Amino acid sequence: MSVKAITEENFEQEVLNSEKPVLLDFYADWCGPCKMMSPIIDEIAEEIGETAVVGKVNSDDNMELAEKYEIMSIPTIMIIKNGQEVKRFLGVTPKEEIIKAINE
Amino acid sequence: MYDVIIIGAGPAGISASLYAKRANMSVLVLYYGESNLEKATEIENYYGFANGISGKDLYENGIKQAQNIGVDVKGEEVLHIEKVQSNFEVTTSNEKYTGKSVIIATGNKKLKPDIDGINEFDGKGISYCAICDGFFYRKKNVVVIGNGKYAVSEANDLQNIVSNVKILTNGLKMQTDTNFEINNKKIKRILGDTKVRQIEFEDGEILNIDGIFVALGEAGGSDFAKKMGVITNGDSINVDSNMSTNVEGLFSCGNVVGGLLQVCKAVYEGAEAGLSAVKYIKSK
Fold first, then answer.
1. What homologous superfamily is domain B126-214 in, according to CATH?
2. Which residues of A are catalytic?
3. Between B136, B211, B226, which is nearest A91 by CB?
4. Which residue in the set A32, A37, A90 is minimally distant from B227, CB to CB?
5. pLDDT in tens, A23-68
6. Is the ipTM here above 0.85?
7. Which pTM was predicted?
8. CATH architecture of the region B2-109+219-283
9. How far is CA B26 from CA B2, B62, B100, in A?
10. Mind giving me the DSSP string for B83-102?
11. Domain that holds residue A78
């Protein structure tokens, strides 16, 4: 499944109303570690297929979202189920740990 | 341009330098501060020393051995490592070096000061990387906890983004000159709700702040690693059996990757990291 660009406009529909678990990667273009995280997120999207929604949030372009979720360090990886945050990882995180958290 | 730049001159770093140098690579070893090995009174379980050897002797002999075969060994504090295209730029307190590969062998360093609340607010106002997280504190009041050049370097990265940055030494003596405002008081605890709000000092004074950047002493291996997007497990750098990290051309070995904190293990991993760096450079 492809990675979706999540914005303030599509957040409600794609994330809050999603029946599947949602994996979000809060990043910024200037952030070095985010560049290492990005391909890991792409691999996860490919591996988990249709079982979850995988999205990336540009925290510069979507500052209200970043503020709402009190993102103070990037990359921040968040798992949301039924509209609620259930897990958060700070910094570059191994693929296996994230997949495990999605499936929990 | 060096083929291999190694950060750390303990058994892991020096062992890596020996293997890389013997494969005809140009090798630079950078080190700063006192090594854990230097502090060990007597090493009695390392192969080949019938009567044991002092940690200091083993450490100094290692550095001499590397210098004898032509490794450049320099006592400079590394402040920053950055991957620029396929090479690495290593900035020290004196100079900037470029390398085709980097091996982090800094040993393990306790990153977190023992302050009440430091774990609770990790990622909620406490950061270990100014260049990564500074943006989220724009026009806010932040402090850097530290007392050396690394703390000043982090404060420099923050000063154009935030509205005010102070350095808190937490009772330690500032070891470098700086124009930043310094507070030498000992910190009692960090207070907040969903995020950091205040620092309380031992004398009862309260400082209102929005963010805390931790940069104690010199930067450790996992500080550099986290800034480059290397996968870490707490303060340990994740490596595979070839001592490769997830960043291409970046290797790590010795105590900073965790596991057995022994000289024999550091020496083996150093050799593996050195050879892996050689293999990587030849494949380029």
1. FAD/NAD(P)-binding domain (3.50.50.60)
2. 31, 34
3. B226
4. A32
5. 999 999 988 899 999 999 999 999 998 999 999 999 999 999 999 9
6. no
7. 0.87
8. 3-Layer(bba) Sandwich (3.50)
9. 5, 18, 10
10. EETTEEEEEESS-EEEEEEE
11. 4-103
